[in-house]
Amino acid sequence: MKLEKKLVSSGYWLFRWRSYFPIVIILFFIPAMGEYEYVGGSREMTTTWGLFCLIVGLLGLVFRILVVGHTPQNTSGRNTREQIAEVLNTSGWYSVVRHPLYLGNYTMGLGISLFPYSWWMPVIYTFAFALYYERIMIAEEDFLRIKFGDDFEKWSAETPGFFPDFSKWDSPLLNFSFKNILRREYSSLFALIFCFTAFDLVGNYLVVQKPYIVPMWNNLFWTTLAVYLILRTLKRHTQILDVKGR
């Protein structure tokens, strides 16, 4: 099998199982948390550092929100069984970068990887992300090339793959839909807060030898959990969050 075909084939396989990538990354957090200490020996400084890491992660989530808020139905989804694309997204954030959602994912994960305050953790995370998602992006572009032909070739030739070129900005075709965000991104917010809360709990236990969660993380966890359960219920059992064409 040619190398290019092998990369595409592995990319399709990784695309199907990409939801489990965070579980793989967690394995790297085990040794990082094993040497965990409070930043500067202070719980307060550690909380401040955690807040900075959260801001980094939220920047990634905000980027995802800006992308998803303008995308049409059956594009930029969470499908895992097969590639789906009713139209080729080339406007909005897709005019400055071909894979904006993965850029958002990377930034969210970067914030989490910074939390243990270990220099090598974000480095390992970055390399792992690059190796994993490069193949997924190759597979996705193979699918789009076959389906959209010259339109894809023209767009891909002009648009960077992962690092945005804001000089190429073209306004999105669809208006921003807040309902679409509520329907599709509530789980991302909860997952982000859950990770920080869990690592804070583990870190505090390793340092003081008893379970403890800093009030900031505790409050954020229960708040986002409530939001998650409400929006999940509305999505599954009502049509309140449905948006025509989204």
Q: Which regions have little confidence, pLDDT < 50, spanning 5+ residues?
A: none
Task: Kindly report how far apart the N and C termini lie.
Answer: 39 Å
Residues in β-strands, percent? under 5%
Helical amount? 55-70%
CATH architectural name:
Up-down Bundle
Sheet bearing the most strands, described? none
Count all strands and give the number.
Answer: 0
The whole-angstrom Rg is: 20 Å
Please state the overall shape, judged from the principal axes of the Cα atoms. globular
Specify the number of helices.
Answer: 8
Total tally of structural domains: 1
Task: Give the CATH class.
Answer: Mainly Alpha
Mean pLDDT across the residues is: 87
CATH topology: Four Helix Bundle (Hemerythrin (Met), subunit A)
Subunit arrangement of the protein: single chain
Order of helices and strands: HHHHHHHH
What structural category arises from helix and sheet content? Answer: mainly alpha
Which terms would index this structure?
246 residues, Four Helix Bundle (Hemerythrin (Met), subunit A), Lipid A Kdo2 1-phosphate O-methyltransferase, transmembrane helix, methyltransferase activity, transmembrane, methyltransferase, mainly alpha
List the helices and strands and how they pair.
Blueprint (H helix, E strand, L loop, with lengths): L2 H14 L4 H14 L8 H26 L31 H15 L5 H29 L1 H9 L19 H31 L6 H23 L9
Helix pairs in contact: 1-5, 2-5, 3-4, 3-7, 4-5, 5-6, 7-8
Quick summary:
With 246 residues, the protein is mainly alpha-helical. Helices cover 65% and strands 0% of the residues.
